[in-house]
Amino acid sequence: MIRTKVILLLLALTGMTSAAQTTAGQEPKIVNIVNFIRLLEPRDPQITEDVLYQTVVKQVNIMRTYHLTGTFLLQYDALMDRRYQDLLRNLPKDSFEIGAWWELPQPLIEKAGLKWRGRYPWDWHADVGFSTGYTPAEREKIADVYMEDFKHIFGYYPRSVASWFIDAHTLQYLYDKYRIVASANCKDQYGTDGYTLWGGYWNQAYYPSRINSYMPAQNAASQIPVPIFRMLGSDPVRQYDQGISSPRQGVITLEPVYPEAGGSESWVNWFFRTFTEDPSLNFNYTQAGQENSFTWNAMAKGFEIQMPLIAGLRDKGRIRLETMEQSGKWFSAKYKVTPPTSFSVTKDVEGSDRKTLWYNSRFYRMNILWEEGSLRIRDIHLFNEKIPDIYTTQVATSNECTFFTLPVVDGYLWSKPGQLAGLRLKALVGGQEVALKGGDPVFKNQDRETVQVSWPLSQGGTLEVTLREKTVSIKLAGNQSIGWYLDLETAPGASLPFTNISARQIDGSFEKFNYHMSAGKGRFSKPANGAVFRLQPEKNEIRLNLVSIN
Protein backbone atom coordinates (compact mmCIF):
# COMPACT_ATOMS: atom_id res chain seq x y z
CA MET A 1 0.00 0.00 0.00
CA ILE A 2 1.26 3.49 -0.80
CA ARG A 3 2.25 5.50 2.23
CA THR A 4 2.13 9.18 3.21
CA LYS A 5 5.47 10.12 1.66
CA VAL A 6 4.22 8.89 -1.72
CA ILE A 7 1.13 11.09 -1.40
CA LEU A 8 3.38 14.10 -0.93
CA LEU A 9 5.48 13.05 -3.91
CA LEU A 10 2.43 12.73 -6.15
CA LEU A 11 1.18 16.16 -5.09
CA ALA A 12 4.59 17.64 -5.81
CA LEU A 13 4.60 16.08 -9.26
CA THR A 14 1.27 17.69 -10.10
CA GLY A 15 2.42 21.13 -8.97
CA MET A 16 -0.64 21.34 -6.72
CA THR A 17 0.80 23.34 -3.83
CA SER A 18 -1.08 25.13 -1.10
CA ALA A 19 -0.83 28.40 -3.06
CA ALA A 20 -3.18 26.91 -5.65
CA GLN A 21 -5.99 26.01 -3.27
CA THR A 22 -9.60 26.69 -4.18
CA THR A 23 -10.47 30.35 -3.92
CA ALA A 24 -13.86 31.83 -3.13
CA GLY A 25 -16.18 31.74 -6.13
CA GLN A 26 -14.24 29.09 -8.06
CA GLU A 27 -16.48 26.65 -9.86
CA PRO A 28 -16.74 23.31 -8.01
CA LYS A 29 -14.69 20.41 -9.32
CA ILE A 30 -16.70 17.31 -8.43
CA VAL A 31 -15.25 13.79 -8.31
CA ASN A 32 -17.24 10.60 -7.82
CA ILE A 33 -15.40 7.32 -7.19
CA VAL A 34 -17.77 4.70 -8.60
CA ASN A 35 -16.99 0.97 -8.57
CA PHE A 36 -19.59 -1.42 -9.92
CA ILE A 37 -19.76 -5.06 -9.02
CA ARG A 38 -20.56 -8.20 -10.99
CA LEU A 39 -20.77 -11.66 -9.42
CA LEU A 40 -19.21 -13.54 -12.33
CA GLU A 41 -17.24 -13.04 -15.51
CA PRO A 42 -18.08 -15.66 -18.18
CA ARG A 43 -15.61 -14.25 -20.72
CA ASP A 44 -12.56 -15.52 -18.84
CA PRO A 45 -12.49 -18.79 -16.82
CA GLN A 46 -9.50 -17.48 -14.81
CA ILE A 47 -11.70 -14.71 -13.37
CA THR A 48 -13.55 -16.66 -10.71
CA GLU A 49 -16.20 -15.35 -8.33
CA ASP A 50 -13.56 -15.22 -5.61
CA VAL A 51 -11.21 -13.16 -7.79
CA LEU A 52 -14.03 -10.68 -8.39
CA TYR A 53 -14.91 -10.54 -4.69
CA GLN A 54 -11.31 -10.00 -3.62
CA THR A 55 -11.05 -7.16 -6.16
CA VAL A 56 -13.86 -5.34 -4.35
CA VAL A 57 -12.23 -6.04 -0.99
CA LYS A 58 -9.03 -4.39 -2.26
CA GLN A 59 -10.99 -1.40 -3.59
CA VAL A 60 -12.70 -0.98 -0.23
CA ASN A 61 -9.42 -1.28 1.66
CA ILE A 62 -7.54 1.32 -0.35
CA MET A 63 -10.47 3.75 -0.20
CA ARG A 64 -10.72 3.33 3.57
CA THR A 65 -6.97 3.78 3.93
CA TYR A 66 -7.26 7.26 2.43
CA HIS A 67 -10.68 7.98 4.00
CA LEU A 68 -12.25 8.35 0.58
CA THR A 69 -15.94 8.78 -0.13
CA GLY A 70 -17.36 6.58 -2.87
CA THR A 71 -20.22 4.67 -4.47
CA PHE A 72 -20.48 0.92 -5.01
CA LEU A 73 -23.12 -0.24 -7.49
CA LEU A 74 -24.36 -3.83 -7.34
CA GLN A 75 -25.51 -5.95 -10.23
CA TYR A 76 -28.39 -8.15 -9.06
CA ASP A 77 -26.44 -11.40 -8.81
CA ALA A 78 -23.81 -9.69 -6.65
CA LEU A 79 -26.58 -8.04 -4.61
CA MET A 80 -27.89 -11.50 -3.69
CA ASP A 81 -24.48 -12.86 -2.69
CA ARG A 82 -23.96 -12.93 1.08
CA ARG A 83 -20.29 -11.97 0.89
CA TYR A 84 -21.02 -8.68 -0.85
CA GLN A 85 -23.92 -8.00 1.48
CA ASP A 86 -21.73 -8.41 4.55
CA LEU A 87 -18.83 -6.44 3.08
CA LEU A 88 -20.88 -3.43 1.99
CA ARG A 89 -23.31 -3.35 4.92
CA ASN A 90 -20.40 -2.73 7.26
CA LEU A 91 -19.07 0.32 5.41
CA PRO A 92 -19.51 3.74 7.10
CA LYS A 93 -22.77 5.17 5.75
CA ASP A 94 -21.46 8.73 5.90
CA SER A 95 -18.68 7.83 3.42
CA PHE A 96 -20.03 5.07 1.19
CA GLU A 97 -23.16 4.80 -0.93
CA ILE A 98 -24.56 1.46 -2.12
CA GLY A 99 -26.59 1.64 -5.32
CA ALA A 100 -27.70 -0.38 -8.33
CA TRP A 101 -25.78 -1.37 -11.46
CA TRP A 102 -28.40 -1.92 -14.16
CA GLU A 103 -27.07 -4.88 -16.09
CA LEU A 104 -29.60 -7.65 -15.87
CA PRO A 105 -28.41 -11.22 -15.15
CA GLN A 106 -30.33 -14.48 -15.31
CA PRO A 107 -31.48 -14.66 -11.63
CA LEU A 108 -33.14 -11.23 -11.87
CA ILE A 109 -34.88 -11.95 -15.16
CA GLU A 110 -36.21 -15.30 -14.00
CA LYS A 111 -37.37 -13.95 -10.64
CA ALA A 112 -39.36 -11.35 -12.60
CA GLY A 113 -41.13 -14.26 -14.31
CA LEU A 114 -39.40 -13.83 -17.67
CA LYS A 115 -37.47 -16.21 -19.87
CA TRP A 116 -33.70 -15.89 -19.89
CA ARG A 117 -32.31 -15.68 -23.43
CA GLY A 118 -28.65 -15.19 -22.63
CA ARG A 119 -25.65 -17.30 -23.54
CA TYR A 120 -24.38 -17.17 -19.94
CA PRO A 121 -25.92 -16.29 -16.54
CA TRP A 122 -24.75 -12.74 -17.29
CA ASP A 123 -24.70 -11.67 -20.94
CA TRP A 124 -23.50 -8.20 -21.99
CA HIS A 125 -25.51 -8.07 -25.23
CA ALA A 126 -27.95 -5.15 -25.49
CA ASP A 127 -30.95 -7.36 -26.25
CA VAL A 128 -30.40 -9.60 -23.22
CA GLY A 129 -28.37 -8.00 -20.45
CA PHE A 130 -29.85 -4.47 -20.53
CA SER A 131 -33.29 -3.00 -20.04
CA THR A 132 -33.45 -2.23 -23.78
CA GLY A 133 -34.00 -5.97 -24.41
CA TYR A 134 -37.38 -6.04 -22.63
CA THR A 135 -40.80 -4.48 -23.12
CA PRO A 136 -41.76 -1.48 -20.97
CA ALA A 137 -44.05 -3.67 -18.87
CA GLU A 138 -41.27 -6.24 -18.38
CA ARG A 139 -38.85 -3.48 -17.38
CA GLU A 140 -41.18 -2.47 -14.57
CA LYS A 141 -41.35 -6.04 -13.27
CA ILE A 142 -37.57 -6.27 -13.36
CA ALA A 143 -37.23 -2.96 -11.50
CA ASP A 144 -39.71 -4.04 -8.83
CA VAL A 145 -37.84 -7.29 -8.13
CA TYR A 146 -34.47 -5.56 -7.86
CA MET A 147 -35.72 -2.73 -5.68
CA GLU A 148 -37.64 -4.92 -3.25
CA ASP A 149 -34.72 -7.31 -2.80
CA PHE A 150 -32.31 -4.40 -2.33
CA LYS A 151 -34.58 -2.90 0.34
CA HIS A 152 -34.93 -6.26 2.08
CA ILE A 153 -31.13 -6.51 2.31
CA PHE A 154 -30.14 -2.91 3.08
CA GLY A 155 -33.34 -1.48 4.55
CA TYR A 156 -33.87 1.25 1.92
CA TYR A 157 -34.17 1.71 -1.83
CA PRO A 158 -31.01 2.66 -3.73
CA ARG A 159 -30.78 6.34 -4.67
CA SER A 160 -28.37 5.90 -7.58
CA VAL A 161 -28.92 3.55 -10.54
CA ALA A 162 -26.37 3.48 -13.36
CA SER A 163 -25.42 1.45 -16.41
CA TRP A 164 -23.66 1.83 -19.74
CA PHE A 165 -27.11 2.86 -20.94
CA ILE A 166 -30.63 2.81 -19.50
CA ASP A 167 -33.80 3.46 -21.48
CA ALA A 168 -36.01 6.45 -20.67
CA HIS A 169 -39.01 4.35 -19.61
CA THR A 170 -36.97 2.58 -16.93
CA LEU A 171 -35.46 5.84 -15.68
CA GLN A 172 -38.87 7.48 -15.42
CA TYR A 173 -40.30 4.47 -13.60
CA LEU A 174 -37.41 4.35 -11.13
CA TYR A 175 -37.91 8.04 -10.42
CA ASP A 176 -41.70 7.94 -10.14
CA LYS A 177 -41.93 4.86 -7.92
CA TYR A 178 -38.58 4.69 -6.10
CA ARG A 179 -37.41 8.31 -6.20
CA ILE A 180 -33.87 7.70 -7.42
CA VAL A 181 -31.81 10.90 -7.45
CA ALA A 182 -28.88 10.10 -9.77
CA SER A 183 -27.95 7.98 -12.74
CA ALA A 184 -24.93 7.57 -15.00
CA ASN A 185 -24.25 6.33 -18.49
CA CYS A 186 -21.20 5.63 -20.60
CA LYS A 187 -18.89 8.31 -21.94
CA ASP A 188 -19.29 9.13 -25.62
CA GLN A 189 -17.91 6.23 -27.65
CA TYR A 190 -18.43 4.62 -31.02
CA GLY A 191 -18.88 0.85 -31.16
CA THR A 192 -16.84 -0.01 -28.06
CA ASP A 193 -18.21 -3.29 -26.65
CA GLY A 194 -21.06 -2.91 -29.14
CA TYR A 195 -22.41 0.25 -27.50
CA THR A 196 -22.50 3.55 -29.40
CA LEU A 197 -23.38 6.79 -27.63
CA TRP A 198 -22.38 9.61 -29.93
CA GLY A 199 -23.01 13.35 -30.01
CA GLY A 200 -24.49 13.81 -26.53
CA TYR A 201 -23.89 16.17 -23.65
CA TRP A 202 -20.13 15.72 -23.35
CA ASN A 203 -19.09 14.79 -19.81
CA GLN A 204 -20.66 16.58 -16.78
CA ALA A 205 -24.40 15.82 -16.31
CA TYR A 206 -27.75 16.48 -17.98
CA TYR A 207 -31.48 15.92 -17.56
CA PRO A 208 -32.68 13.51 -20.28
CA SER A 209 -35.76 13.82 -22.43
CA ARG A 210 -38.74 11.75 -21.30
CA ILE A 211 -38.63 9.91 -24.63
CA ASN A 212 -34.87 9.64 -25.12
CA SER A 213 -32.48 8.87 -22.28
CA TYR A 214 -29.45 10.06 -24.25
CA MET A 215 -30.95 13.34 -25.49
CA PRO A 216 -30.82 16.36 -23.17
CA ALA A 217 -34.24 17.95 -22.70
CA GLN A 218 -34.73 21.65 -23.39
CA ASN A 219 -37.63 22.21 -21.00
CA ALA A 220 -38.38 21.07 -17.45
CA ALA A 221 -41.78 19.74 -18.51
CA SER A 222 -40.13 17.41 -21.03
CA GLN A 223 -37.32 16.05 -18.87
CA ILE A 224 -36.88 13.19 -16.46
CA PRO A 225 -35.78 15.01 -13.29
CA VAL A 226 -32.85 12.66 -12.64
CA PRO A 227 -29.40 13.95 -13.62
CA ILE A 228 -27.36 11.53 -15.72
CA PHE A 229 -23.62 11.82 -15.06
CA ARG A 230 -21.21 10.78 -17.80
CA MET A 231 -18.88 7.97 -16.75
CA LEU A 232 -15.22 7.12 -16.92
CA GLY A 233 -13.35 10.45 -17.19
CA SER A 234 -12.70 10.81 -20.91
CA ASP A 235 -9.47 12.35 -22.16
CA PRO A 236 -10.84 15.68 -23.51
CA VAL A 237 -8.16 15.89 -26.20
CA ARG A 238 -7.58 12.34 -27.48
CA GLN A 239 -10.61 10.14 -26.76
CA TYR A 240 -12.74 11.79 -29.45
CA ASP A 241 -10.36 10.96 -32.34
CA GLN A 242 -9.36 7.51 -31.10
CA GLY A 243 -9.80 4.85 -33.76
CA ILE A 244 -10.92 6.90 -36.77
CA SER A 245 -12.09 4.57 -39.60
CA SER A 246 -12.23 1.63 -37.17
CA PRO A 247 -15.50 -0.08 -36.23
CA ARG A 248 -14.54 0.24 -32.54
CA GLN A 249 -13.02 3.14 -30.68
CA GLY A 250 -10.16 2.66 -28.28
CA VAL A 251 -10.37 3.93 -24.71
CA ILE A 252 -8.40 6.81 -23.15
CA THR A 253 -10.03 7.43 -19.79
CA LEU A 254 -9.41 7.67 -16.07
CA GLU A 255 -10.12 3.94 -15.71
CA PRO A 256 -7.04 2.59 -13.89
CA VAL A 257 -6.66 -0.50 -16.10
CA TYR A 258 -5.48 1.47 -19.14
CA PRO A 259 -1.68 1.79 -19.00
CA GLU A 260 -1.49 4.86 -21.24
CA ALA A 261 -4.27 6.72 -19.41
CA GLY A 262 -5.70 5.98 -15.95
CA GLY A 263 -2.83 3.61 -15.17
CA SER A 264 -0.15 6.13 -16.15
CA GLU A 265 1.20 8.42 -13.45
CA SER A 266 2.07 11.19 -15.92
CA TRP A 267 -1.33 11.07 -17.64
CA VAL A 268 -3.23 10.98 -14.33
CA ASN A 269 -1.24 13.96 -13.01
CA TRP A 270 -1.96 15.86 -16.23
CA PHE A 271 -5.66 14.98 -16.17
CA PHE A 272 -6.22 16.18 -12.63
CA ARG A 273 -4.14 19.29 -13.23
CA THR A 274 -6.28 20.35 -16.19
CA PHE A 275 -9.45 19.21 -14.41
CA THR A 276 -8.80 21.35 -11.34
CA GLU A 277 -6.84 24.31 -12.72
CA ASP A 278 -8.23 25.07 -16.18
CA PRO A 279 -11.45 27.12 -16.51
CA SER A 280 -14.79 25.33 -16.37
CA LEU A 281 -18.26 26.84 -16.59
CA ASN A 282 -20.59 26.26 -13.62
CA PHE A 283 -18.83 23.06 -12.51
CA ASN A 284 -16.47 20.36 -13.66
CA TYR A 285 -17.08 16.65 -13.13
CA THR A 286 -15.20 13.41 -13.46
CA GLN A 287 -15.72 9.83 -12.36
CA ALA A 288 -12.95 7.57 -11.06
CA GLY A 289 -13.19 3.89 -10.12
CA GLN A 290 -13.43 0.60 -12.00
CA GLU A 291 -15.69 -2.41 -12.54
CA ASN A 292 -14.46 -5.50 -10.72
CA SER A 293 -14.44 -7.59 -13.94
CA PHE A 294 -10.99 -6.20 -14.77
CA THR A 295 -9.63 -7.70 -11.50
CA TRP A 296 -7.34 -6.14 -8.94
CA ASN A 297 -4.09 -7.26 -10.60
CA ALA A 298 -4.97 -5.23 -13.68
CA MET A 299 -6.19 -2.11 -11.88
CA ALA A 300 -3.91 -2.02 -8.80
CA LYS A 301 -1.24 0.26 -10.26
CA GLY A 302 -3.77 2.83 -11.43
CA PHE A 303 -5.71 2.71 -8.16
CA GLU A 304 -2.53 3.19 -6.15
CA ILE A 305 -1.68 6.24 -8.27
CA GLN A 306 -5.14 7.80 -8.22
CA MET A 307 -6.53 7.23 -4.73
CA PRO A 308 -3.85 9.09 -2.73
CA LEU A 309 -3.83 11.85 -5.33
CA ILE A 310 -7.61 12.28 -5.04
CA ALA A 311 -7.31 12.29 -1.25
CA GLY A 312 -4.69 15.01 -1.42
CA LEU A 313 -6.79 17.15 -3.74
CA ARG A 314 -9.75 16.77 -1.41
CA ASP A 315 -7.68 17.71 1.64
CA LYS A 316 -6.42 20.85 -0.09
CA GLY A 317 -9.92 21.90 -1.09
CA ARG A 318 -9.19 21.47 -4.78
CA ILE A 319 -12.06 19.04 -5.42
CA ARG A 320 -15.39 18.03 -3.92
CA LEU A 321 -15.33 14.27 -3.39
CA GLU A 322 -18.91 12.99 -3.23
CA THR A 323 -21.10 9.95 -3.68
CA MET A 324 -23.32 9.88 -6.74
CA GLU A 325 -26.32 10.44 -4.49
CA GLN A 326 -24.76 13.60 -3.04
CA SER A 327 -23.89 14.93 -6.49
CA GLY A 328 -27.37 14.11 -7.81
CA LYS A 329 -29.08 15.94 -4.96
CA TRP A 330 -26.78 18.95 -5.39
CA PHE A 331 -27.42 19.08 -9.14
CA SER A 332 -31.20 18.88 -8.76
CA ALA A 333 -31.28 21.54 -6.04
CA LYS A 334 -29.14 23.94 -8.08
CA TYR A 335 -30.39 23.39 -11.64
CA LYS A 336 -34.02 23.13 -12.73
CA VAL A 337 -32.93 22.45 -16.32
CA THR A 338 -29.60 21.27 -17.72
CA PRO A 339 -27.02 24.06 -17.28
CA PRO A 340 -24.35 25.19 -19.72
CA THR A 341 -20.95 23.74 -18.78
CA SER A 342 -17.45 23.63 -20.21
CA PHE A 343 -14.26 21.61 -19.89
CA SER A 344 -11.07 23.26 -21.14
CA VAL A 345 -7.44 22.25 -21.59
CA THR A 346 -4.84 25.01 -21.73
CA LYS A 347 -1.78 22.72 -21.64
CA ASP A 348 -1.69 19.20 -23.00
CA VAL A 349 0.49 16.25 -22.00
CA GLU A 350 4.24 16.40 -22.49
CA GLY A 351 5.18 16.63 -26.16
CA SER A 352 1.83 17.98 -27.39
CA ASP A 353 0.80 21.59 -27.98
CA ARG A 354 -2.92 20.87 -28.30
CA LYS A 355 -5.56 22.86 -26.43
CA THR A 356 -9.28 22.29 -26.44
CA LEU A 357 -12.63 23.55 -25.22
CA TRP A 358 -15.81 21.50 -24.81
CA TYR A 359 -18.97 23.57 -24.37
CA ASN A 360 -22.37 22.02 -23.61
CA SER A 361 -25.82 23.43 -23.14
CA ARG A 362 -29.28 21.87 -23.23
CA PHE A 363 -29.42 22.90 -26.92
CA TYR A 364 -26.06 21.83 -28.38
CA ARG A 365 -22.46 20.84 -27.81
CA MET A 366 -19.34 22.22 -29.48
CA ASN A 367 -15.68 21.26 -29.40
CA ILE A 368 -12.82 23.47 -30.60
CA LEU A 369 -9.30 22.07 -30.95
CA TRP A 370 -6.07 24.04 -31.39
CA GLU A 371 -3.08 22.15 -32.79
CA GLU A 372 0.21 23.39 -34.27
CA GLY A 373 -1.11 26.95 -34.23
CA SER A 374 -4.33 26.16 -36.13
CA LEU A 375 -7.97 26.08 -35.06
CA ARG A 376 -10.47 23.38 -35.96
CA ILE A 377 -14.07 23.23 -34.80
CA ARG A 378 -14.21 19.46 -34.78
CA ASP A 379 -17.68 18.86 -33.37
CA ILE A 380 -21.13 20.46 -33.27
CA HIS A 381 -24.20 18.39 -32.38
CA LEU A 382 -27.69 19.73 -31.74
CA PHE A 383 -30.16 18.42 -29.16
CA ASN A 384 -33.92 18.05 -29.53
CA GLU A 385 -36.13 16.61 -26.78
CA LYS A 386 -38.81 15.67 -29.33
CA ILE A 387 -36.67 13.00 -30.99
CA PRO A 388 -37.50 9.62 -29.46
CA ASP A 389 -35.01 6.82 -29.20
CA ILE A 390 -36.41 3.49 -30.33
CA TYR A 391 -35.65 1.86 -26.99
CA THR A 392 -38.14 3.92 -24.98
CA THR A 393 -41.04 1.89 -26.35
CA GLN A 394 -39.47 -0.86 -28.47
CA VAL A 395 -37.35 -3.89 -27.67
CA ALA A 396 -33.77 -4.06 -28.89
CA THR A 397 -33.35 -6.86 -31.42
CA SER A 398 -29.60 -6.54 -31.92
CA ASN A 399 -26.71 -7.40 -29.63
CA GLU A 400 -25.52 -3.81 -30.15
CA CYS A 401 -27.08 -0.52 -29.13
CA THR A 402 -26.87 2.99 -30.64
CA PHE A 403 -27.80 6.46 -29.39
CA PHE A 404 -27.24 9.60 -31.48
CA THR A 405 -28.01 13.32 -31.57
CA LEU A 406 -28.10 15.69 -34.59
CA PRO A 407 -24.76 16.23 -36.35
CA VAL A 408 -23.66 19.55 -37.84
CA VAL A 409 -19.92 18.91 -37.62
CA ASP A 410 -18.53 15.46 -36.85
CA GLY A 411 -14.77 15.27 -36.72
CA TYR A 412 -14.82 11.55 -36.01
CA LEU A 413 -17.37 9.93 -38.32
CA TRP A 414 -16.64 12.29 -41.23
CA SER A 415 -12.85 11.79 -41.02
CA LYS A 416 -10.26 9.35 -42.27
CA PRO A 417 -6.65 9.04 -41.08
CA GLY A 418 -4.83 12.06 -42.45
CA GLN A 419 -8.10 13.73 -43.48
CA LEU A 420 -9.66 15.12 -40.31
CA ALA A 421 -13.07 16.73 -40.70
CA GLY A 422 -13.99 20.06 -39.15
CA LEU A 423 -14.65 23.74 -39.64
CA ARG A 424 -11.30 25.38 -40.41
CA LEU A 425 -10.47 29.07 -40.22
CA LYS A 426 -9.08 30.39 -43.49
CA ALA A 427 -8.53 33.64 -45.38
CA LEU A 428 -7.63 34.93 -48.82
CA VAL A 429 -4.19 36.54 -48.56
CA GLY A 430 -2.73 37.91 -51.77
CA GLY A 431 -5.31 35.96 -53.73
CA GLN A 432 -4.23 32.70 -52.10
CA GLU A 433 -6.26 30.61 -49.64
CA VAL A 434 -4.36 30.11 -46.39
CA ALA A 435 -5.13 28.59 -43.01
CA LEU A 436 -4.96 31.25 -40.32
CA LYS A 437 -2.55 30.57 -37.49
CA GLY A 438 -2.26 31.96 -34.00
CA GLY A 439 -0.93 31.72 -30.48
CA ASP A 440 -2.45 30.26 -27.34
CA PRO A 441 -6.20 30.69 -26.79
CA VAL A 442 -7.46 32.26 -23.56
CA PHE A 443 -10.69 30.95 -22.00
CA LYS A 444 -12.79 33.15 -19.73
CA ASN A 445 -16.22 32.69 -18.15
CA GLN A 446 -18.23 35.88 -18.55
CA ASP A 447 -21.29 34.72 -16.60
CA ARG A 448 -23.14 31.49 -15.80
CA GLU A 449 -23.98 30.98 -19.48
CA THR A 450 -21.11 32.45 -21.46
CA VAL A 451 -17.59 31.35 -22.29
CA GLN A 452 -15.36 33.82 -24.13
CA VAL A 453 -12.39 32.54 -26.15
CA SER A 454 -9.72 34.99 -27.33
CA TRP A 455 -7.23 33.70 -29.88
CA PRO A 456 -4.46 36.06 -31.08
CA LEU A 457 -3.75 35.59 -34.79
CA SER A 458 -0.27 35.64 -36.32
CA GLN A 459 -1.65 37.83 -39.13
CA GLY A 460 -2.80 40.41 -36.58
CA GLY A 461 -6.01 40.85 -34.64
CA THR A 462 -7.80 38.50 -32.27
CA LEU A 463 -10.45 35.94 -33.07
CA GLU A 464 -13.14 36.13 -30.39
CA VAL A 465 -15.50 33.19 -29.96
CA THR A 466 -18.44 33.67 -27.60
CA LEU A 467 -20.41 30.55 -26.68
CA ARG A 468 -23.82 31.02 -25.11
CA GLU A 469 -26.66 28.63 -24.31
CA LYS A 470 -28.36 29.03 -27.70
CA THR A 471 -25.84 30.82 -29.91
CA VAL A 472 -22.19 31.03 -30.91
CA SER A 473 -20.61 34.28 -32.09
CA ILE A 474 -17.27 34.39 -33.94
CA LYS A 475 -15.72 37.77 -34.72
CA LEU A 476 -12.34 39.19 -35.66
CA ALA A 477 -11.26 42.17 -33.60
CA GLY A 478 -8.35 44.50 -34.39
CA ASN A 479 -7.79 43.61 -38.05
CA GLN A 480 -10.45 44.58 -40.53
CA SER A 481 -8.36 43.72 -43.61
CA ILE A 482 -8.37 39.91 -43.39
CA GLY A 483 -11.07 38.32 -45.55
CA TRP A 484 -11.62 35.35 -43.26
CA TYR A 485 -14.17 32.51 -43.35
CA LEU A 486 -14.84 28.98 -42.10
CA ASP A 487 -14.83 25.98 -44.43
CA LEU A 488 -16.30 22.61 -43.47
CA GLU A 489 -13.91 19.96 -44.75
CA THR A 490 -14.62 16.23 -44.60
CA ALA A 491 -12.98 13.09 -45.89
CA PRO A 492 -14.13 11.96 -49.35
CA GLY A 493 -17.10 9.62 -49.19
CA ALA A 494 -18.24 10.72 -45.73
CA SER A 495 -21.95 10.12 -45.15
CA LEU A 496 -23.29 13.64 -44.58
CA PRO A 497 -26.77 14.67 -43.41
CA PHE A 498 -27.12 17.91 -45.36
CA THR A 499 -30.07 18.25 -47.71
CA ASN A 500 -29.85 21.94 -48.61
CA ILE A 501 -27.45 24.85 -48.20
CA SER A 502 -28.90 28.34 -48.54
CA ALA A 503 -27.46 31.74 -47.66
CA ARG A 504 -28.89 31.84 -44.14
CA GLN A 505 -29.50 28.20 -43.27
CA ILE A 506 -28.21 24.65 -43.60
CA ASP A 507 -30.83 21.91 -43.61
CA GLY A 508 -30.13 18.35 -42.59
CA SER A 509 -31.87 15.03 -42.10
CA PHE A 510 -30.59 12.37 -39.71
CA GLU A 511 -32.37 9.12 -38.90
CA LYS A 512 -35.52 10.49 -40.57
CA PHE A 513 -35.56 13.68 -38.49
CA ASN A 514 -35.23 17.06 -40.23
CA TYR A 515 -33.32 19.90 -38.59
CA HIS A 516 -31.34 23.02 -39.44
CA MET A 517 -28.67 25.46 -38.33
CA SER A 518 -29.18 29.12 -39.17
CA ALA A 519 -26.92 32.16 -39.27
CA GLY A 520 -28.14 35.36 -37.62
CA LYS A 521 -24.99 36.97 -39.02
CA GLY A 522 -22.92 35.53 -41.83
CA ARG A 523 -23.74 33.64 -45.00
CA PHE A 524 -23.42 30.05 -46.14
CA SER A 525 -22.27 29.13 -49.62
CA LYS A 526 -20.95 26.17 -51.59
CA PRO A 527 -17.32 27.00 -52.53
CA ALA A 528 -15.41 25.66 -55.51
CA ASN A 529 -12.53 24.27 -53.44
CA GLY A 530 -14.35 21.05 -52.45
CA ALA A 531 -15.47 22.15 -48.99
CA VAL A 532 -18.96 21.01 -47.98
CA PHE A 533 -19.94 24.58 -47.20
CA ARG A 534 -18.36 27.95 -46.47
CA LEU A 535 -19.47 30.34 -43.75
CA GLN A 536 -18.46 33.95 -44.36
CA PRO A 537 -18.83 36.79 -41.84
CA GLU A 538 -20.87 39.95 -42.10
CA LYS A 539 -19.10 43.01 -40.69
CA ASN A 540 -16.41 40.68 -39.38
CA GLU A 541 -18.84 38.52 -37.40
CA ILE A 542 -20.58 35.16 -37.68
CA ARG A 543 -23.47 34.39 -35.35
CA LEU A 544 -24.98 30.90 -35.33
CA ASN A 545 -28.35 29.93 -33.91
CA LEU A 546 -27.97 26.42 -32.46
CA VAL A 547 -31.52 25.78 -31.27
CA SER A 548 -32.97 22.78 -33.07
CA ILE A 549 -36.24 22.38 -31.16
CA ASN A 550 -39.31 23.85 -32.89
UniProtKB/TrEMBL annotation:
<keyword id="KW-0732">Signal</keyword>
<protein>
    <submittedName>
        <fullName>Uncharacterized protein</fullName>
    </submittedName>
</protein>
<feature type="signal peptide">
    <location>
        <begin position="1"/>
        <end position="19"/>
    </location>
</feature>
